[in-house]
């Protein structure tokens, strides 16, 4: 039995990802990583649609935070960005290995790496041209603590539970966005309706007047309404 | 972890943010592996302007390579040997295992099975 089954909706994305290879390789990580789901597919569909525009910006350093299976970074590497360096990060070490495996089975491995870390804390300031984040956005009583050993069974909880309004983790990222993005850098961040993304965007703009924020895509997925917002640093110089 | 990645990672401790010593980290006891990949000069030419060259030189020295020029090479478009050397160093050199130390706070991070771990213990995570 294939332990890592991709939902049928996956194939709505008309791309040439070798699903069989992906399934076989990822099976050891089943139960330990976030399996691609509607939120992942929303990002894939968005990047399929706006891929040419994203590539035209010629991002050099691309960072995906919370990469999970690595499917979004792999898609970007394989189909959209030919001369970028991608770093797929996750707090969960199993995801780092899974991301490398997913990419290796589908795309060029030469310009792809994965590190384990908490959001942008270990990244050089003003270095990221393109940042992608599918956060733990589900409202929950609290954000789970980080397990101490790789064998712990609770790593997966970190991919889902986003604390109050589901915004605890995303808010931390938003606070560091001005510092981590390169001049003219862009960040694509996924939200669910319960995160109140339009209010979040409005508040962010008040605090960061040099940014532009735009809703790029929205879709009903089961009982959730998911959306992706673009946060763009319009300052050409580092202004902080 | 690829050598190129060392040019984009720093100490995760918040109080080290303001210190220039938190980047690059000091690499020690590293087990290296050369993984052959297709040569893509275009990628290197476009990436070079984004590199902190002093950090490239410093990390290379940590790993035992002291042959790099001290200033960032220019006009590499026509310098195939330089491009190939950079390809080998930045993209083919993998740190399989090793440790990385912050020159400011002394915190040690580990690379295990090619994955660098920048998670901090709870007492450092919010400091």
TrEMBL record, chain A:
Transferase as a keyword of this entry, yes or no, is: yes
Single annotated GO MF = nucleic acid binding
- Can you give the residue ranges of the Methyltransferase small domain? 55-137
Question: GO cellular component terms?
Answer: eRF1 methyltransferase complex
Keyword Nucleotide-binding in record: no
- Top-level division of the source organism's lineage: Eukaryota
Sorted keywords for this record are:
Methyltransferase, S-adenosyl-L-methionine, Transferase
An annotated GO BP: methylation
Pfam families documented for this protein: MTS (PF05175)
SUPFAM superfamilies associated with the record: S-adenosyl-L-methionine-dependent methyltransferases (SSF53335)
Per the record, the similarity remark reads: Belongs to the eukaryotic/archaeal PrmC-related family.
Q: Which NCBIfam families match?
A: hemK_rel_arch
Question: What protein name is recorded for this chain?
Answer: Methyltransferase small domain-containing protein
Q: Which organism is it from?
A: Ogataea polymorpha
From TrEMBL, chain B:
- Which InterPro entries is this protein grouped with? Trm112, Trm112-like
Instruction: Show the taxonomic lineage.
Output: Eukaryota, Fungi, Dikarya, Ascomycota, Saccharomycotina
- Tell me which species this is from: Ogataea polymorpha
Its keywords, alphabetically, are:
Cytoplasm, Nucleus
Q: Which Pfam family, giving just one, matches this sequence?
A: Trm112p
Q: In the UniProt record, does the keyword Metal-binding occur? A: no
**Signal peptide range:** none
The UniProt entry lists the main location of this chain as cytoplasm
The similarity comment for this entry is: Belongs to the TRM112 family.
Q: State the Gene Ontology terms under molecular function.
A: protein heterodimerization activity
Q: Which PANTHER family match?
A: MULTIFUNCTIONAL METHYLTRANSFERASE SUBUNIT TRM112-LIKE PROTEIN, UPF0315 PROTEIN-RELATED
Q: Where in the cell is it found?
A: Cytoplasm; Nucleus
Output the superkingdom of the source species. Eukaryota
Give Gene Ontology CC terms. cytoplasm; nucleus
A GO BP entry is: rRNA (guanine-N7)-methylation
In its UniProt entry, what is this protein called?
Answer: Multifunctional methyltransferase subunit trm112
């Amino acid at each position: 039995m294939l332990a890592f089954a991709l939902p049928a909706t996956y194939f709505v994305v008309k791309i040439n990802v070798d699903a069989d290879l992906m399934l076989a390789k990822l099976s050891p990580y089943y139960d330990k990583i976030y399996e691609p789901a509607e939120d992942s597919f929303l990002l894939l569909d968005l990047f399929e649609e706006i891929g040419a525009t994203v590539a035209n910006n010629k991002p050099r350093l691309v960072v995906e935070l919370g990469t999970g299976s690595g499917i979004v970074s792999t898609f970007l590497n394989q189909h959209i960005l030919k001369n970028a360096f991608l770093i797929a990060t996750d707090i969960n070490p199993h995801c780092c290995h899974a991301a490398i495996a997913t990419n290796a089975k589908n795309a060029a491995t030469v310009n792809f790496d994965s590190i384990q870390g908490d959001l942008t804390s270990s990244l050089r300031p003003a270095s990221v041209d393109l940042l992608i984040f599918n956060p733990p956005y589900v409202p929950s009583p609290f954000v789970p603590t980080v397990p101490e050993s790789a064998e712990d069974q609770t790593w997966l909880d970190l991919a889902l539970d986003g604390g109050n309004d589901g915004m605890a983790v995303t808010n931390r990222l938003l606070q560091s966005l001005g510092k981590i993005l390169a001049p003219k850098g862009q960040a694509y961040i996924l939200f669910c309706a319960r995160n109140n993304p339009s209010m979040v965007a409005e508040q962010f703009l008040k605090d960061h007047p040099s940014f532009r924020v735009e809703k790029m895509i929205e879709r009903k997925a089961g009982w959730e309404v998911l959306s992706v917002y673009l946060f763009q640093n319009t300052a050409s110089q580092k202004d902080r | 972890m690829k050598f190129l990645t060392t040019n984009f990672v720093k100490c995760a401790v918040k109080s080290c943010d303001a210190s220039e010593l938190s980047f690059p980290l000091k690499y020690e006891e590293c087990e290296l592996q050369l993984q052959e990949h297709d040569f893509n000069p275009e990628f290197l030419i476009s990436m070079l302007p984004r590199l902190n060259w002093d950090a490239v030189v410093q990390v290379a020295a940590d790993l035992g390579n002291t042959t790099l020029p001290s200033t960032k090479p220019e006009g590499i478009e026509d310098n195939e040997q330089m491009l190939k050397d950079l390809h080998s160093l930045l993209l083919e050199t993998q740190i399989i295992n090793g440790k990385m130390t912050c020159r400011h706070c002394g915190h040690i991070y580990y690379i295990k099975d090619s994955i660098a771990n920048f998670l901090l213990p709870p007492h450092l995570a919010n400091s």
